[in-house]
Known about the structure:
This protein is an alpha+beta fold.
Amino acid sequence: MSDAALELAEAEGYGEIFRAAPDSIRRAHGVEVRDVAGATCILLGAVPGQLMLNRVNGLGLRGPAGDAELDEIDAFFRAGGTQYAIGVSPLAPPGLARRLAERGFEPGYAWMKFRRDIEPPPDVEATLRVKEIGAEEGASFGAIVTRGFGLPEFAGEWFGALAKRPRFHLFLAYDGDEPAGAGALFVGEGVGWLGVAATLPEHRRKGAQGALLGARIRRARELGLAALATETGEHTADRPSGSYRNILRLGFEEQYLRPNYVSPA
Length: 265
C-alpha cells in the first residue's frame, strides 16, 4: 500500500465531511469544498484561520501543482475570507515547498502521518464501552466533536450528519449511558482513515480514545481493508500529545512528518 493511498484516504475523508454539511449550514456558515487538480480544498468561513478546517490535502498527488493551480486555490480561500494551510507530503512535486515560500507561505505546525496493517489491535485498559452507532445517535456524535474541538454550536448538526454518509462508520464511547468520546472510520480505496476523534473534557484519562481506536481497527478488518491511516500533530517537548501516544500504542507506525505551509494573513 503506497504512501499516496494513505494521503488520498485522508483527503477524501475530509472532502466527505464537508459534503455532509446540510445546505442550511453550508449557506449560513460558509462551508465549502472544492477539488483542484485532484487536491481537496476545504473551507469553513465561520472560523477563519482554523487551519484544521481551512486547508488543502493531497496537492500534487493526482494532478499538477503549478502556478495556475496555486492561483485557483488561493482565489478560493480569499473569496471565503480565510487564511489556510497546505499539507505538503513527501510525494508532492519537487520544489512545491520552495514555491509556496516564494508566495509568502510559512511553515506551521507539522502533522505526523501514521500507517497500520489490520492485524487485531492490542487490548487496552478502559473504563468506557464502545459501540458503532447509526443515524439515530448522530446528534450525540456531533455534540462531542463540537465540544472536543471547540467548534461553534452549529457544527453539532453538521458532524452528526456524517452518520448518514455510507463511507463513514461512527463510534461512541459511553461512560454508563452517557456519551463521552467519539471517533470515525472513513472507507477509502482499500485504506481506512481514522479521524474526527474527540473526548469530552470531563471524561478524559478514562481510555476512551484507545478503546475507540481498537473498535475502528476491528471494524476495518471486518470490511476487508488493507491498511489504515491516521495523523496527529508533531510530538515536541512543548506540545505533549496523548493522541500521539495512543496511536503508537495501538500499533500504528510513524511514516513521515508532513509540513503544513500557512498562507499569508
